[in-house]
Amino acid sequence: MAHGYVSDKERYLARLKRIEGQTRGIHRMIDEDVYCIDVLTQISAITSALENVALALLDDHINHCVRHAAEHGGKDEIDEKLNEVNAAITRLVKS
Amino acid sequence: MAHGYVSDKERYLARLKRIEGQTRGIHRMIDEDVYCIDVLTQISAITSALENVALALLDDHINHCVRHAAEHGGKDEIDEKLNEVNAAITRLVKS
Amino acid sequence: MAHGYVSDKERYLARLKRIEGQTRGIHRMIDEDVYCIDVLTQISAITSALENVALALLDDHINHCVRHAAEHGGKDEIDEKLNEVNAAITRLVKS
Amino acid sequence: MAHGYVSDKERYLARLKRIEGQTRGIHRMIDEDVYCIDVLTQISAITSALENVALALLDDHINHCVRHAAEHGGKDEIDEKLNEVNAAITRLVKS
C-alpha cells in the first residue's frame, strides 16, 4: 500500500529542496561571518519549516496508513501502527 | 569586532554541512517512498541538531558580542544588544 | 464509551494535583523574591511535566477513542476523530 | 539588588494565579470525564502561558541582573551570570 504522502510527493520534494537550500544558506552565512542574530533568525525559520513538513507527514500517515490498518488490519497490526504513531509524536514534541 | 562564533567557525561549518546532508537524505527518502515513520524520525533528528547549533551560537553571541557591549558600549548599544538577544530567544523557543 | 484515560484516572489526577502545587510554588517564589534563574528552572520542570501528561492523554486517546472509531465507526466519524487528533498534535508541537 | 521581575511583580503574580486556576481546571476536567481533546486543548493553552511567563522573566533577568553584572561586576561574576542564562535558555528550549 502506498504511503500517505505519496499523493503529495512533488510538494514534499519541493519543500525539502527549499529547506536544503536554506541550510546551505546558513553554511554560507557562517562562512561569510554574518552577524549571529541574523543566522539565528534563519535557523528558527528552518526549524519551523521542518516542523511543518513533519506535521503534514504525520497527518498523511494517520489519515492513510493508520486508518487503513484500523479499518482492515488485525489487532497486532493496529497495535504496531498506533505505537509507532505515539512514538513519532513524542519525538516531534520533544525535539 | 569578530562575532562570537568565529573562533569555532570550522566546527559550525562541519555541523551545518552534516545537517545539509541529512536534509538531502530526507529528500531522497521521500523520493524513494520510504516509510513515513522513518522519515519522521530523521526530521526529528535534524530539528534537534539545528536547535543545538542555535543554542551554541546564542551562547557564543551572549558571551562575546553582548558581553563586549555591556562592558564597553554605551546605554543605547547595550539596549539594542539585549533586545536582539531576547527576540532571538523568543523565536527559538516558539519555533 | 468511556474515554481512553478513564482507566488511568487516579494517576492523571495525582499528576495534575502535583503540577498544580508546583504552579502555586512558583507563585510563592515570585512573592518571596526568589532568584529569577531558580524560578525559570521550576517553570521548565512544570512545562515538561504538563507535556508528558499531554503525550500520555494523546496516547490513550489514539489507542481507545480513535481506534474504536476506526474499527466500528462510519467514514464521517473516522474523519472527525482523525482531524481532531491531527489538530491536537499540531497545538502540542507548536505550544 | 532587587531581581529584574520585582518591578512587575503584581502582574507576574496575577498571571501565575490564573495559570494555577487553569491547572486546577484540568484536574476538574479529568475528574468529570471531559473529552480527551478538550483537555489537551487546555493543556496546550497552559503550556503556552507558562512559556510566555518564562520568556518575560528571562527578558527581565537579562535586562537587569545580567546587565548590572556586566556593567559593574568583575570577570567571575559576569562569567557566572552568562553561564546561568545560557543554561536557563537551553532548559526552556528543550522543555
UniProtKB/TrEMBL annotation, chains A, B, C, D:
Please provide the Gene Ontology terms (biological process) for this protein.
negative regulation of DNA-templated transcription
**Which UniProt keyword terms apply here?**
Copper, DNA-binding
Q: Please name one Pfam family that this protein belongs to.
A: Trns_repr_metal
- Annotated InterPro entries: Metal_Tscrpt_repr, Metal_Tscrpt_repr_sf
Asked if DNA-binding is a keyword of the record, the answer is yes
Its domain of life reads Bacteria
> Does DNA-binding show up as a keyword for this record?
yes
Read off the CDD domains from this record: CsoR-like_DUF156
- Gene Ontology molecular function, alphabetical: DNA binding; metal ion binding
Report the sequence similarity comment from the record. Answer: Belongs to the CsoR family.
- The identity of this protein, by name, is DNA-binding FrmR family transcriptional regulator
Q: Which organism is it from?
A: Propioniferax innocua
